Amino acid sequence: MISGLKKATFSLKTSFKIVCATRQKRFINMAVVTQVSCNKMFGGFQKVFSHESKELKCKMNFGIYLPPKADSEKCPVLYWLSGLTCTEQNFVSKAGAQKYAAEHGLILVAPDTSPRGCNIEGEDDSYDFGSGAGFYVDATAEKWKTNYRMYSYVTEELPALINENFPVAIGKQSIFGHSMGGHGALICALKNPGKYNSVSAFAPICNPTECPWGLKAFAGYLGDNKEAWKEYDASCLVKKYGGLPFDVLVSQGKEDNFLTGGQLLPNNFVAACAEAKAPVILKMEEGYDHSYFFIATFMEEHVSHHARVLNA
């Protein structure tokens, strides 16, 4: 039993009771994960776990919010992908999503944004490449390809870990994110028809093959073959998707300095969606910037967007 402890390690071979504060006791078969923190919140529990990632060849953290409903039944899961320089803590501490997840009975999962501590030369040299800037691609460049496999991590390894160890309603998962993570959410949905029930994004990097952030990251991680870059560009992917079964919700602050700086290019994505006859809702919000103040303001709308589908 775990109560008031910072860390606890679980083994796949044994069932353990996970108890935090006054939570009702129950059993979960756990793969090898380590509980880093646990806090009661809106009747559920905000936890952080660490584990050794096979895809990334390093230790990774992820935040998970378990709503009160998860005490007695399986719940849909909503994945969040964060932006440049972030860890799992930005979403956990600033987004304010747990209240709405508790109301709708959704599990929230927020991974880190890149591998950490891989001792690759240059991984910590800049904010927009390397540590904290995995861009949710599977790198093919020799220097980065062993560790920088964030696409496979967030679409395969992490969901398998979550499905195995937590009370998830299999087949009910959605994805959303912010900035670089908004880019990640869009491409994960577009590259995997049927895998996600819904998708949304805050201020996403919509056309990375045409913006400075994307040009730097894709050249570094994927090399010189620009055709390969298009496989991680939402504005390119949507044109060949073949029909979205859901609306894509995008919220964008009008006072976002990265919007005016040409990094985000939401109109390019809207135009690509129109060409592909793919339903998209772009909401331009007056006076809002790129920060978590903006995200927290419209978080209820986004969680409700996903809940309508996941709880249908």
Tell me what the structure shows.
This protein has 10 helices and 12 strands. It has 312 residues and is an alpha/beta fold. A 10-stranded mixed β-sheet has the order 1-4-5-6-8-7-9-10-11-12, with helices on both faces. A two-stranded antiparallel ribbon has the order 2-3.
Average the pLDDT over all residues and give the rounded result. 90
Helix content: 25-40%
Sheet with most strands:
10 strands, mixed
Number of strands: 12
* Low-confidence blocks of residues: 1-29
Distance between the termini: 35 Å
Strand content: 15-25%
Rg to the nearest angstrom? 19 Å
Helix/strand order: EEEEEEEHHEHEHEHHHEHHEH
Read across the widest sheet, the strand sequence of neighbours is 1-4-5-6-8-7-9-10-11-12
Number of helical elements: 10
List the helices and strands and how they pair.
Layout: E1 8-9, E2 15-17, E3 27-29, E4 34-41, E5 44-53, E6 58-66, E7 75-81, H1 88-94, H2 98-104, E8 107-111, H3 150-165, E9 168-178, H4 180-191, E10 199-202, H5 212-222, H6 226-229, H7 234-237, E11 248-253, H8 257-260, H9 266-276, E12 280-285, H10 292-310
Parallel strand pairs: 7-8, 7-9, 9-10, 10-11, 11-12
Antiparallel strand pairs: 1-4, 2-3, 4-5, 5-6, 6-8
Question: Which keywords apply here?
Answer:
ten-stranded mixed β-sheet; single chain; disordered N terminus; 24% strand; alpha/beta; 312 residues; two-stranded antiparallel sheet
Q: How would you briefly describe this protein structure?
A:
This protein has 312 residues and is an alpha/beta fold. The protein has helices spanning 88-94, 98-104, 150-165, 180-191, 212-222, 226-229, 234-237, 257-260, 266-276, 292-310; strands spanning 8-9, 15-17, 27-29, 34-41, 44-53, 58-66, 75-81, 107-111, 168-178, 199-202, 248-253, 280-285.
